[in-house]
Protein backbone atom coordinates (compact mmCIF):
# COMPACT_ATOMS: atom_id res chain seq x y z
CA UNK A 1 0.00 0.00 0.00
CA UNK A 2 1.33 3.44 -1.01
CA UNK A 3 1.28 6.16 1.63
CA UNK A 4 2.00 9.74 0.63
CA UNK A 5 3.21 12.23 3.25
CA UNK A 6 4.11 15.89 2.99
CA UNK A 7 7.76 16.85 3.36
CA UNK A 8 8.68 20.13 5.03
CA UNK A 9 11.19 21.66 7.44
CA UNK A 10 9.38 20.13 10.41
CA UNK A 11 9.50 16.45 9.43
CA UNK A 12 12.59 16.56 7.20
CA UNK A 13 15.14 15.98 10.01
CA UNK A 14 13.45 12.68 10.92
CA UNK A 15 13.77 11.36 7.35
CA UNK A 16 16.93 13.19 6.23
CA UNK A 17 19.21 10.11 6.19
CA UNK A 18 16.71 8.04 4.19
CA UNK A 19 16.16 10.89 1.73
CA UNK A 20 19.91 11.32 1.19
CA UNK A 21 20.22 7.56 0.63
CA UNK A 22 17.40 7.68 -1.93
CA UNK A 23 18.92 10.73 -3.65
CA UNK A 24 22.27 8.96 -4.00
CA UNK A 25 20.61 5.75 -5.18
CA UNK A 26 18.49 7.59 -7.75
CA UNK A 27 21.25 9.76 -9.19
CA UNK A 28 24.45 7.72 -8.79
CA UNK A 29 23.33 4.29 -10.01
CA UNK A 30 21.77 2.88 -13.13
CA UNK A 31 21.78 4.04 -16.72
CA UNK A 32 21.71 7.77 -15.88
CA UNK A 33 24.34 7.67 -13.13
CA UNK A 34 26.60 10.55 -12.20
CA UNK A 35 28.93 11.04 -9.27
CA UNK A 36 27.51 12.91 -6.27
CA UNK A 37 29.41 13.30 -3.01
CA UNK A 38 27.28 12.35 0.04
CA UNK A 39 28.04 15.61 1.88
CA UNK A 40 27.08 17.68 -1.17
CA UNK A 41 23.88 15.64 -1.56
CA UNK A 42 22.99 16.39 2.06
CA UNK A 43 23.63 20.13 1.77
CA UNK A 44 21.72 20.26 -1.53
CA UNK A 45 18.68 18.58 0.01
CA UNK A 46 18.91 20.73 3.15
CA UNK A 47 18.84 23.83 0.94
CA UNK A 48 15.90 22.55 -1.12
CA UNK A 49 13.83 21.93 2.01
CA UNK A 50 14.69 25.40 3.38
CA UNK A 51 13.39 26.97 0.15
CA UNK A 52 10.42 24.72 -0.52
CA UNK A 53 8.48 21.59 0.33
CA UNK A 54 7.62 18.25 -1.16
CA UNK A 55 6.23 14.83 -0.55
CA UNK A 56 7.47 11.37 0.32
CA UNK A 57 5.89 8.14 -0.80
CA UNK A 58 6.31 4.99 1.27
CA UNK A 59 5.54 1.45 0.17
CA UNK A 60 5.25 -0.46 3.40
CA UNK A 61 8.05 0.93 5.56
CA UNK A 62 10.37 1.63 2.59
CA UNK A 63 10.87 5.16 1.29
CA UNK A 64 10.09 4.59 -2.40
CA UNK A 65 10.06 8.17 -3.68
CA UNK A 66 10.51 11.84 -2.92
CA UNK A 67 9.48 14.89 -4.94
CA UNK A 68 10.52 18.43 -3.99
CA UNK A 69 9.35 21.82 -5.21
CA UNK A 70 9.79 25.54 -4.65
CA UNK A 71 9.16 28.82 -6.38
CA UNK A 72 10.95 29.16 -9.72
CA UNK A 73 12.48 32.33 -8.25
CA UNK A 74 15.00 30.05 -6.50
CA UNK A 75 16.27 28.34 -9.67
CA UNK A 76 19.32 30.45 -10.55
CA UNK A 77 19.85 28.48 -13.78
CA UNK A 78 16.44 29.23 -15.31
CA UNK A 79 16.89 31.54 -18.34
CA UNK A 80 14.24 34.06 -17.28
CA UNK A 81 15.21 36.71 -19.87
CA UNK A 82 14.81 34.24 -22.73
CA UNK A 83 11.35 33.14 -21.56
CA UNK A 84 9.44 36.28 -20.52
CA UNK A 85 6.10 34.44 -20.84
CA UNK A 86 7.00 32.35 -17.78
CA UNK A 87 6.71 34.37 -14.58
CA UNK A 88 9.06 33.01 -11.88
CA UNK A 89 6.85 34.56 -9.19
CA UNK A 90 3.87 32.48 -10.33
CA UNK A 91 5.66 29.30 -11.37
CA UNK A 92 6.26 26.17 -9.32
CA UNK A 93 9.69 24.63 -9.88
CA UNK A 94 9.70 20.87 -9.32
CA UNK A 95 13.34 20.59 -8.35
CA UNK A 96 13.70 16.87 -7.62
CA UNK A 97 11.79 13.70 -8.43
CA UNK A 98 13.47 10.50 -7.27
CA UNK A 99 12.14 6.96 -7.11
CA UNK A 100 14.06 3.95 -5.85
CA UNK A 101 14.85 1.50 -8.69
CA UNK A 102 12.89 -1.26 -6.92
CA UNK A 103 9.71 0.80 -7.29
CA UNK A 104 10.04 2.37 -10.74
CA UNK A 105 7.30 1.77 -13.26
CA UNK A 106 4.56 1.71 -10.60
CA UNK A 107 3.25 5.26 -11.05
CA UNK A 108 5.03 6.64 -7.98
CA UNK A 109 6.64 9.62 -9.74
CA UNK A 110 3.34 10.44 -11.41
CA UNK A 111 1.47 10.30 -8.10
CA UNK A 112 4.01 12.55 -6.37
CA UNK A 113 4.14 15.12 -9.20
CA UNK A 114 0.34 15.21 -9.48
CA UNK A 115 0.10 15.83 -5.74
CA UNK A 116 2.60 18.72 -5.96
CA UNK A 117 0.60 20.25 -8.81
CA UNK A 118 -2.69 19.82 -6.97
CA UNK A 119 -1.57 21.40 -3.70
CA UNK A 120 0.23 24.23 -5.52
CA UNK A 121 -2.66 25.33 -7.73
CA UNK A 122 -3.76 28.04 -5.31
CA UNK A 123 -0.29 29.63 -5.20
CA UNK A 124 1.06 29.10 -8.73
CA UNK A 125 -0.33 29.29 -12.26
CA UNK A 126 2.39 27.24 -13.96
CA UNK A 127 4.92 24.52 -13.22
CA UNK A 128 8.41 23.88 -14.58
CA UNK A 129 10.60 20.81 -14.28
CA UNK A 130 14.15 20.23 -15.52
CA UNK A 131 15.41 16.83 -16.70
CA UNK A 132 18.51 15.35 -18.32
CA UNK A 133 17.86 14.98 -22.05
CA UNK A 134 19.06 11.35 -21.94
CA UNK A 135 16.47 10.36 -19.32
CA UNK A 136 13.78 9.21 -21.75
CA UNK A 137 11.53 7.57 -19.12
CA UNK A 138 11.32 10.84 -17.15
CA UNK A 139 10.76 12.90 -20.32
CA UNK A 140 7.96 10.53 -21.37
CA UNK A 141 6.31 10.80 -17.96
CA UNK A 142 6.42 14.59 -17.89
CA UNK A 143 5.03 14.82 -21.42
CA UNK A 144 2.23 12.45 -20.37
CA UNK A 145 1.49 14.85 -17.48
CA UNK A 146 1.14 17.76 -19.92
CA UNK A 147 4.61 19.30 -19.71
CA UNK A 148 6.10 20.69 -22.91
CA UNK A 149 9.76 21.52 -23.60
CA UNK A 150 10.48 25.27 -23.52
CA UNK A 151 14.28 25.54 -23.43
CA UNK A 152 17.45 23.78 -22.40
CA UNK A 153 20.70 24.53 -20.61
CA UNK A 154 24.07 22.83 -20.20
CA UNK A 155 25.39 21.86 -16.77
CA UNK A 156 28.74 20.46 -15.74
CA UNK A 157 28.40 17.31 -13.64
CA UNK A 158 30.84 14.62 -12.53
CA UNK A 159 31.19 11.08 -13.93
CA UNK A 160 33.65 10.36 -11.11
CA UNK A 161 35.65 12.57 -8.72
CA UNK A 162 37.66 14.95 -10.90
CA UNK A 163 36.03 13.76 -14.17
CA UNK A 164 33.51 16.37 -15.35
CA UNK A 165 31.08 15.98 -18.23
CA UNK A 166 28.49 18.26 -19.82
CA UNK A 167 24.83 17.39 -19.34
CA UNK A 168 22.02 18.98 -21.37
CA UNK A 169 18.99 19.65 -19.19
CA UNK A 170 15.59 20.32 -20.75
CA UNK A 171 13.09 22.61 -19.04
CA UNK A 172 9.50 21.54 -19.49
CA UNK A 173 6.51 23.72 -18.55
CA UNK A 174 2.78 23.31 -18.11
CA UNK A 175 -0.11 25.35 -16.79
CA UNK A 176 -1.52 24.47 -13.38
CA UNK A 177 -4.47 26.84 -13.58
CA UNK A 178 -5.54 29.88 -15.51
CA UNK A 179 -4.67 33.37 -14.29
CA UNK A 180 -8.37 34.36 -14.10
Written overview of the protein:
The protein has 180 residues and is an alpha+beta fold. It has a single domain (2-175), classed as Gcn5-related N-acetyltransferase (GNAT) (Aminopeptidase, 3-Layer(aba) Sandwich). It contains four helices and seven strands; from the N terminus they run βααβββαβαββ. A seven-stranded mixed β-sheet has the order 1-2-3-4-5-7-6. β6 (148-160) and β7 form a beta hairpin. α1 (12-28) packs across α2 (38-51). The protein is globular.
List its salient traits.
4 helices; Aminopeptidase; 7-stranded mixed β-sheet; alpha+beta; 180 residues
CATH topology: Aminopeptidase
Considering DSSP H and I runs of 4 or more, what fraction of the residues is helical?
25-40%
- Determine Rg (CA atoms, Å): 16 Å
In DSSP terms (H or I, runs of 4 or more residues), the helix count works out at 4
Shape: globular
Order of helices and strands: EHHEEEHEHEE
Instruction: Say how many strands there are.
Output: 7
CATH homology-level superfamily: Gcn5-related N-acetyltransferase (GNAT)
Q: Main sheet, how many strands, which sense, barrel?
A: 7 strands, mixed
Proper CATH architecture: 3-Layer(aba) Sandwich
What structural category characterises the helix and strand content?
alpha+beta
| % residues in beta strands | 35-45%
What's the structural domain tally?
Answer: 1
Look at the structure and give the CATH class: Alpha Beta
Q: How are the strands of the biggest sheet laid out side by side? A: 1-2-3-4-5-7-6
The CA-CA distance between the termini, in Å, is 38 Å
Question: Mean pLDDT across all residues, rounded?
Answer: 95
Low-confidence stretches: none
Amino acid sequence: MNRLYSLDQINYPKFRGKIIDLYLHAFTSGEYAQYVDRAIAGSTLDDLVRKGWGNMLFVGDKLAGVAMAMSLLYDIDFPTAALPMISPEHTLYISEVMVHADFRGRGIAQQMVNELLEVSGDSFTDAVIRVWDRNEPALALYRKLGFKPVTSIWQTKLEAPGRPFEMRKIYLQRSIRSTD
